[in-house]
Amino acid sequence: MHTFVSAILIVPVVGILPTRPGFTPNAGEIAEVLEYPLASLSDAETRVEWPVGDHMYRGFAYEMEGGNTIWGATAHILQEFLDVCRAVTA
Predict the structure, then answer these.
(1) What are the b/e assignments for 47-86, b being 16+ CB within 10 Å?
(2) pLDDT at residue 20 is higher than 70
(3) Buried-most residue among 26, 62, 77, 89 (CB within 10 A)?
(4) How confident is the model at residue 27 (pLDDT cuts 50, 70, 90)?
(5) What is the average per-residue pLDDT within 59-78?
(6) Partners of 56 in the beta sheet?
């Protein structure tokens, strides 16, 4: 997925691991690692239209506990992943 603002290519990877991994965030890239159950993300999924600078963001957002809002490219990736999960369990 190409990002709109920074034109960076994001390649999400999904896998199953035998144990829970330890996360060490790179402070130059992210402030913290957020972990939420898929059901919580699915419940929080909302279509939004927000003014951002001189354009309108139209997409998905996830208002999560702790005051965290997931939106933009991350929300787009999550929405597509949740759609795949919903299709598999339907």
Answers:
(1) eeeeeeeeeebebbbbeeeeeeebbbbbbbbbbeebeeee
(2) yes
(3) 62
(4) very high
(5) 94
(6) 51
Cα–Cα dist 49/57, whole Å: 5
Q: Which residues contact 86 (CB under 8 A, 6 or more apart)?
A: 42
Residue 30's pLDDT is 87
* Domain extents in the chain: 41-89
For 82, the enclosing helix (H) or strand (E) is: helix 72-89
Token pair of 16, please? 């199953």
Least confident range of 3-12, 14-23, 29-38, 59-68: 3-12
Spatial contact of 46 and 33, defined as CB atoms under 8 Å apart: no
The 3-state DSSP class for residue 57 equals: strand
On the 0-12 / 13-18 / 19+ scale of CB atoms within 10 A, 7 is: exposed
